[in-house]
Give the backbone structure.
Amino acid sequence: MNRSNTNTQKRYYTFLLILAILFIAATLRSPLTSVGPLIPFFREELDVSNSMVGLVNTLPLLAFGVFSSLVPKISSKFGMELTLLAAMFMLTVGIFIRALSGLPLLLFGTVLLGMAIAFGNVLMPGLIKSSFPYQIGLMTGIYSVSMNIFGALASGISVPIASVPSFGWRNAMQIWSILSLIAIVILLLRLPAARSEKKVFVKVENKASRGIFKSKIAWAVTLFMGLQSFIPYSLFTWLPDILMSKGFDESEAGWLIAIYQLGLIPTTFIAPIIAGRMKNQRLLGCIAGLLFFFGLVGVTFISSQLIIAPLVLTGVGAGTAFSLAMMFFVLRTNSIAESSQLSSMAQSVGYLVAATGPLLLGTIAEKTNGWTVPLIILMVAALCIAFLGTIAGKNQKISVGTQGKDKERI
């Protein structure tokens, strides 16, 4: 009888953990993807330039880069789930206050939510690896699908919500705090398990090693991570303006961004499973960059409804590249601690690379009075992703020892 109760309790807490992964994943993109379609609404009201608008989506990426390196140390003290719980509280506050008043609160709230998302980005791969060691590909796929479904939904419905007289753009931004509130409730329900189950309540060792910075594979994963973020976050910010320059209105642009993100969903689920079964992921990494490239070529030259096809192709490339980046943290390491260190390195340096995207492209578009040059920059980044994917996809694992030499996987 006691064994039966124990098994029931274990299934209950496992179910809650899966729900927590789903809802935390849902909070990691929706607060950011909801901003791009709303730019025409608040740019006019707040009287801000393209450079300042670019800063709104650059700040979270800077926060990712700056705070990602601190996550393992904080997590090692408090554990993964308590750290994620605190991050969800911070995220809820950041989402809510950014739309309360003018530009200063918008920027401050954006920094807060960026800090919170940085914790989720770094800890989720380690949480999945420690909690579901035999279903890493499946759980990474579920995590990625949830992130992208809600990211697409946020892009698609933000303008319709903002267009309702009783709501406006402020409520359209704030509504996404509901997801983080649900995540908080689930994590609170999981507290008894988090305190008693060592397997789930993992304390990541923060033994920062110089060896990881000497690893060619680690740097390939890091730059792959950075550039595969550079393109989507630039598009989240500026794709509405790019589409509106082609004759689409705000609502159409919002839904076209949603269609782009819907292209991510099948691949974010399938790609990790395929990657986990492959001896190496070099071909998959190269294909991800080429899909990005040809999709962006279509976005550059097509101005009709046919643009849906290259948008979906770009989304498929983004989904494949993102899923591979998440899988590399696991596949290129030997332990949870190494996975966390690689994740921290890749996301701290990678997101600093990505942070240049929204601000840089917005400034260039303003100077050149068009989007051709920014789109060419994105296409060059896509080709670099294809090249880096062939290196990061090698069947090797990093070494964080003193020699820092990558080791062939046995």
